[in-house]
Amino acid sequence: MSENEAEFLKRIREIFRLEAQEHLQTISMGLIELEREPEPDRWAELIEELFRETHSLKGAARSVDQRDVEGLCQPMESAFAALKRGEIGFSLGMSDLFLQAVDHISQLVESDGEPILATKDQTREELIRQLESAAEGQEPEPPAQKAPEPLETAAKSTGETAKPADAASEQKSVAPELPPSPAPGSPSPSPPRQQGAQGQPAPALGASVRIPTDQLDPLLLQAEEMIAAKLAASQRVADLRVVQQGLDNWETESGRWSERQTAYAPKESYTRLSALQYQVKAVGDSLSQDQRTLRRMVDDHLETMKRVLMLPVGTMVDLLPKVVRDLSRDQGKLADLIIEGREIEIDKRILEGLKDPLIHLIRNCIDHGLLKPEEREAQNKPPQGTIRLSFTTLDSRQVEVAIEDDGEGIDLDKVKKAAVGKNLISAEKAAELDHREALQLIFLSGLSTSPLITDLSGRGLGMAIVRQHVEKLGGELFVDSKKQEGTSFRLRLPMTLATFRGILVRVGEQQFLLPTVNTLRVFRVSPEEVKTVENQKTIRMEGEVLSLVNLGACLGIPERGGISSPQIDGSGQEEQADYMPVLVLASSGRRIAFGVDQVLDEQQVLLKSLGRQLVRVRNIAGAAVLGSGRVTLVLNPSDLMASALRVKQGPEAPAEKEAPETRRILVADDSITARTLIKNILQTVGYQVTTAVDGMDALTHARSEEFDLVVSDVDMPRMNGFEFTAKLRADPKLAELPVVLVTALGSREDRERGIETGANAYIVKSSFDQSNLLDVIRKLL
């Protein structure tokens, strides 16, 4: 094969991959909608759509010689054809089978034609056999229980890959590729459907082109870099106006001098001065006109580029219904995901950054919020829970994302107890917290109310990660919950990351930018307005008492001058000496007033990161270049809130260093390979390890020696891991010994049995890795 032929084959396979993922996502969404038992007309429409999508996928696979994909599509198409003709009925088991086939096809597509191993629970041949049987009217066999996949893997199985599943999220496109030619005698497939902005049909073929976003991103960055040129031009205009004002002042003074000393007035100098003044004014006028033109061009170009990379929310959220279906069914629950606002367009970078927080929140709704059908019915609720995901534009710059469930709500007593138990808060402080303050505890890293650590929950990191991601995007996160009614999370995010508006302030000799979106109000306070409450300075704003903290103290800058130091405002005029400029910031439901030395201006700038060497710096969100060329740090409001609390509480006493302690761990596994692997992992990080060949041997060791933790397999001879754990919990001396079960048994029933026997953590070997095990052990110790 020549180099040109190889390059062509690579391009055509990439086109096929994108088209295939479009078809697979449409099939997945159609099957999930069928499970909801739609009206007859809609049911027939969905079956027709599924048939055509499968047929088109089969033809596309044939055109690039993807025989494995074609072989699976053929019996799927036959089954949809039988459904279409009314020869067979649709069932939940059939939907399960179709979705398993979709998952397997997705893996085949991502393998780029290379052979891959079949999934553990269904070989390709078995899938084909069951699909052929389903097409003949036989009810598919129940799928075997399998270990829950990590969410990243689950997302891939729905059609999401390292690049977004929907072609619209990977390529800014409104014109589909031409579909492959159908087989002779087969019905003509309909072209893949694409939608443009606001859900409108895409323009006709030829009105647009496919452009990969990795080619568009540099264009947007270049447009954003032009902001610095615009700011510099504005600064030059301002500088020239200062020169012109000086010349005007000179002319005025010279005129007064010439009136007093007419005989000695150098008339030639006045003439030259007037000419110079005229030239400066002419240049200033021209520069002002150029600056206005440049500003308009930069703003228009930037807005156009932002619209190019604004994508409908649906390109990201359409994979979520299947994620909800898989996660809820794995836990023996029923959940329906309702999505509103799919047509709203948001910056591609915001959508990409929002994906992980949404999956975490939805998982939290299923794992902690929704009960099993029989438990919901006992509370007079429908057996199927509802999760509502809605997107709403607040204004031209902000969007609100709401995730609500109708589950149990957050048990605040349990949350407080868990926080006290993890030494995250004192019992006295927990008792003083009101409803809103107690809800904020769920965002503390390390806090979890789950009775068992599994691959999906129990580590206490999920909600902390959600808040971190949201704040990194420049947004805010709010939570509300009512017992037995449900929980709602609201995320307020910017619609684009292209530009940043900030308030420029001075603290000492340094300048900083504070996000305008987090600034509620800017005003001045006099010494009489500052009151001291419990050794903390406070002020009142619209009847609300707010803590007043010096911004310099939060940033570690020595305070100079105090509240009575004279201030200079943006116009160069001296302010009243006994007033302090104050900015009220809001973040994560809190409001705090920060005192500064001077409020200079509000500017639109380009926010830049600090680079890989400074990925995370407390209180700092990034940097920006001002029109003067000065580099200024942009402050992080969320970090400032935490720093303000530390300033209020005073410096913490240095903690006494504890002598290192070697922890002893007992490992029980009948496999010598598994025992050796786990032993080496634990010994490498400093743990002292004793091994046992089964549960009986491990119980003997546990009763005769002292251990800090047990890691045990489940499926062992003589005494399995469940029985071993139960024996430990029945022994008063060993009842509190932490137990981690590491096993290949990943079904819901096995995990529930692990909870019943008293295990503290349950790790499935299919998702087992070194860091996973060590993370769980550190948490339990």
Q: Structural class per helix/strand content?
A: alpha/beta
Q: How many DSSP helices?
A: 24
Sheet with the most strands: spatial strand order: 12-16-17-15-14-13
**Overall geometric form:** globular
How much strand content do the residues show? 15-25%
Largest sheet features: 6 strands, mixed
Question: Quick check: average pLDDT?
Answer: 75
The proportion of residues forming helix, as a percent range, comes to 40-55%
Rg, nearest Å: 33 Å
Spans of at least 5 consecutive residues whose pLDDT stays below 50 are 145-204, 561-576, 650-660
Strand segment count: 25
- End-to-end span in angstroms? 59 Å
Characteristic terms for this protein:
781 residues, six-stranded mixed sheet, 24 helices, globular
How does this structure look, described?
45% of the residues lie in helices and 18% in strands. The protein is of the alpha/beta class. Helix 20 (672-684) links the parallel strand 21 and strand 22. Helix 21 (695-704) packs parallel to helix 22 (721-730). The longest helix has 48 residues, at 213-260. The protein is globular and about 110 Å long. Mean pLDDT is 75; it is low at 145-204, 561-576 and 650-660.
Provide a quick synopsis of the model.
The chain is α/β, with parallel strands linked by helices. Strands 12-16-17-15-14-13 form a six-stranded mixed β-sheet. A five-stranded mixed β-sheet has the order 4-6-7-9-8, with helices on one face. Strands 18-10-11-20-19 form a five-stranded mixed β-sheet.
List the helices and strands and how they pair.
Blueprint: H1 3-35, H2 40-63, H3 67-85, H4 92-110, H5 124-135, H6 151-157, H7 167-170, E1 171-172, E2 211-212, H8 213-260, H9 267-308, E3 310-312, H10 314-317, H11 320-330, E4 335-340, E5 345-347, H12 348-369, H13 373-378, E6 385-393, E7 398-405, H14 412-421, H15 427-432, H16 435-439, H17 462-472, E8 476-482, E9 486-494, E10 500-507, E11 510-515, E12 519-525, E13 531-533, E14 536-541, E15 544-550, H18 551-555, E16 580-587, E17 590-595, E18 598-605, E19 620-625, E20 631-635, H19 637-649, E21 664-668, H20 672-684, E22 688-692, H21 695-704, E23 709-712, H22 721-730, E24 739-743, H23 748-757, E25 761-764, H24 770-780
Parallel strand pairs: 4-6, 11-20, 15-17, 21-22, 21-23, 23-24, 24-25
Antiparallel strand pairs: 1-2, 3-5, 6-7, 7-9, 8-9, 10-11, 10-18, 12-16, 13-14, 14-15, 16-17, 19-20
